Amino acid sequence: VQLQASGGGVVQAGGSLRLSCAASGSILRINEMGWYRRAPGKQRELVAVTTTGTMISFDSTKYADSVKGRFTISRDFAKNTVYLQMNKLKPEDTAVYYCNAQISDSPYNNYDYWGQGTQVTVSS
Questions:
Q1: Measured on CA atoms in the order 67, 5, 24, 101, is the torsion positive or negative?
Q2: Where are the alpha helices (DSSP H) in 1-95?
Q3: What single DSSP character describes residue 117?
Q4: Pairwise CA distance, residues 55 & 47, whole Å
Q5: What is the CB neighbour count within 10 angstroms for residue 16?
Q6: In what order do the strands lie in the sheet with 71-76?
Q7: 3-class state of residue 65 by DSSP
Q8: Which own/partner contact pairs does 41-46 have at CB distance under 8 Å and 24+ positions apart?
Q9: How far apart are CA 28 and CA 102, in angstroms?
Q10: Distance separating alpha carbons of residues 44 and 16, to the nearest angstrom
Q11: What is the pLDDT of residues 64-88, one digit of tens each?
């Protein structure tokens, strides 16, 4: 399985960017897809994640407090792709953003995959 991320760049504060991450390969079910980021000198942190529902649960999303109301995560199930719409960007959003996915290729496993990072730089 491979995750291909795209959409990073340089934007002024208050601007918007949209990140995309497409999963390809041997995929039975994508259990979870999301975005993490690592800012210079800081640890990697969760940005947003979307979890696929099961027979006993609904689809769900989770956001870091720092991005709530500004970022929106969404998925295209047919394309195995997750998007992160980032609005009202702040300089503190500057980081390398990483796509992550929890994927099963059989009913009995769940593997963790990471995409290559994409740089987001927000200038003040």
A1: negative
A2: none
A3: P
A4: 26
A5: 12
A6: 2-6, 17-24, 81-86, 71-76
A7: helix
A8: 42/95, 44/98
A9: 11
A10: 22
A11: 999 999 999 999 989 999 999 999 9
Helices (H) and strands (E) in the chain, counts: 0, 11
Nearest residue to 101 via CA among 28, 42, 40: 28
pLDDT in tens, 30-68: 999 999 999 999 999 999 999 987 777 778 899 999 999
Cα dist from 19 to 4, 28, 34, 56, 97, whole Å: 11, 24, 11, 30, 9
Amino acid residing at 98:
Y
In degrees rounded to 5, what are phi and psi of residue 64? Answer: -65, 145
Given a contact cutoff of 8 angstroms between Cβ atoms, the answer to whether 5 and 116 are in contact is: yes
Let me know: does 37 contact 49? Beta carbons within 8 Å. Answer: no
Q: What is the CA radius of gyration of the chain?
A: 14
